[in-house]
Amino acid sequence: MNPLTGITVVEVSSFVAAPLCGVTLNQLGAQVIRVDPIGGASDVHRWPLSADGTSIYWTGLNKGKRSATIDLRSPDGQELVHRLIVEGDGIVVTNAVLPWLSYESLAAKRPDVIHVQLLGRRDGSTGVDYTVNAGLGYPLVTGPASHAGPINHVLPAWDVCCGLYAALGVVAALRRRDQSGAGTRISLALEDVALATAGNLGLLTEPQVIGTERERLGNAIYGQYGQDFTSGDGAAFMVVLLTGRHFRDLVKVTGTEAAVSALAEALGVDFAVEGDRYRYREVLSGLFATWFGDHSADEIAVALSDTSVLFERYRTFAEVAAGPKVTANPLFSRLAQPGLGEYYAPGLPAAFDGTHPASAAASALGQDTADVLTERLGLTAADIARLTDAKTIGDHSA
């Protein structure tokens, strides 16, 4: 049994953060019922799409969930969602700001409700990962040092962090309810997650305390030695040296002992100190680059594998998907997803007792509507037919 086996969560969501929270809770064992408006939310056809139009994005973020489609604008539809929450385990995760789905409206019916509200900004105004990031500073320190304008990062980092914080919040609230019987109202803003992370990493503290701002470094690493190199046959590698041992090993394998020693003496520095390696990273990289350029990618990988140096060859998503990091990794298992076929899908990154909880296929939009309402609320076949005819719920059989 996984840690949350026996728990049911209702999710009313779209895009990344809230659905990722639901996927994570499902991988931990919870049954997650995703409720969408009839026809689907705005992310149901988000790219990339398979040949038959199935969204790879949507199925990826809804693995293992049950799917119900309900008219969220009608009083009858809203009452059905309320009942799914209140008569279930009293847990809802949403990024939709809807008065009828508020903590207050649910707590009036079930005082121990756990309500997770994801927001763009804490004042309730909208914000997505890219707009939040634009107002934070990261795009102005991302990219080549010679570039003058902002560069967005392709990873929606704050969405991911926000989804995981939300899942943590649900787990913490469950423990609180088990101990005291109290419900919990959790409000989590995407912008606050981004600000907290930048603050925790010192990016916001630095200008306040020492009056400096982080500089744009390209592929170098602030405060440490890190640089990309290209092999003689054109492969790119990232090399990171965090300790004196890492540095000594790279100097030895590249045969630059004499040159590095002479450089240290001429500059009056000690390259055993990370700050000195960082300050003179460009001249050091010039010394190391010759060795990389004189060797093939395979030769470099073999040579560095026998050292403590931290390195990795740059690879494309396609290369990774076809390689052992996916195909021979217990994190991944073969998943048969309608609309996509069979592929390697990740489970939960955390292993419990040596096992990664696996993911199940995503339900088709609205596939479980009748079953969920029958099992959870005791509705009859006649009730389902009446609600379908009234277009209060989606007709998946049509």
TrEMBL record:
A molecular function (GO) term: transferase activity
Superkingdom, taxonomy of origin: Bacteria
Keywords: Transferase
InterPro entries: CoA-transferase_III, CoA-Trfase_fam_III, CoA-Trfase_III_dom3_sf, CoA-Trfase_III_dom_1_sf
Pfam families with a match to the protein in the record: CoA_transf_3
Full protein name: Crotonobetainyl-CoA:carnitine CoA-transferase CaiB and related acyl-CoA transferases
Naturally occurring in which organism (per UniProt): Mycobacterium rhizamassiliense
